[in-house]
Design a protein that fits this description.
The protein is built from 5 helices and 8 strands. By secondary structure, the protein is α+β, with helices and mostly antiparallel strands. The strands form 2 sheets. The chain has a 5-stranded mixed sheet with strand order 2-1-8-6-7, covered by helices on one side. A 3-stranded antiparallel sheet has the order 3-4-5, with helices on one face. It folds into 2 domains: about 55 residues, no CATH class; about 100 residues, Beta Complex (Ferric Hydroxamate Uptake Protein, Chain A, domain 1). The two termini are about 25 Å apart. Helix 1 packs parallel to helix 3. Keywords: Cobalt, Cobalt transport, Ion transport, Secreted, Signal, Transport. Belongs to the eukaryotic cobalamin transport proteins family. InterPro entries: Cbl-bd_prot, Cobalamin_Transport, Transcobalamin-like_C. It comes from Cuculus canorus.
């Protein structure tokens, strides 16, 4: 893409490693990694799997040498990020099922500390209105995955899942890492694949 993103934020670490390792095979032009690295520098990686994949590209070292990363000297690295700000943000959260059983659509506005993940938004919505916004997650190597909302569970047999959107754009990150902005509208839609 023109903004430097290759695939999505989770694939960037592997893509950068692969492109760097195979750059001598590109002809007739050299690969310019500036835009791709700027995408990685702007992201706050928190999941161990994503960090493990992006770290070699960021520090230009192998996994064995990665432990020598000096955060005091490497302020540009997203791995050495500062704590979250303490102010609160407002997030509008909706859940919609027009696919199975009794259809529903509920919305709520919640306040969470700035820098909170989407998971915190879901937890706050559940705390305020548990009969509507209850949810369940399963832990994966990429972090928590939402498998049920409002007692409607995703199913591999039915090829259904809960897809999250910011406005009309699908989120490229999971609930454990995505950080909503103040005034954002997040929608979870029961979907098929």
């Amino acid at each position: 893409k023109n903004d430097g993103m290759i695939g999505n934020i989770y694939s960037m670490g592997l893509v950068l490693q692969a492109l760097d390792a195979t750059s001598k095979f590109y002809a007739p032009r050299k690969w310019d990694c500036t835009q791709a690295f700027s995408v990685v520098y702007k992201h706050d990686y928190t999941l161990p799997m994503a960090i493990a994949q992006v770290l070699p590209a960021l520090v230009g070292k192998s996994y064995l040498n990665a432990s020598k990363l000096d955060c005091a000297r490497s302020s540009r690295s997203p791995l050495c990020s500062s704590p979250f700000p303490a102010d609160s943000i407002t997030v509008h959260y909706s859940i919609t099922n027009n696919l199975q059983g009794k259809h529903f659509s509920f919305s709520i506005t919640v306040h969470v500390p700035a820098g909170s993940t989407l998971l915190k938004v879901l937890q706050e919505a559940e705390n305020e209105e548990p009969e509507k916004f209850s949810f369940k997650t399963e832990q994966t190597s990429w972090g928590p995955m939402v498998v049920s909302i409002h007692k409607l569970a995703a199913s591999t047999n039915d090829k259904t899942y809960w897809q999250f959107f910011s406005g009309k754009e699908p989120l490229q990150e999971g609930v454990g890492t995505y950080k909503p902005w103040n005034g954002e509208h997040i929608e979870a839609i029961f979907s098929t694949y």
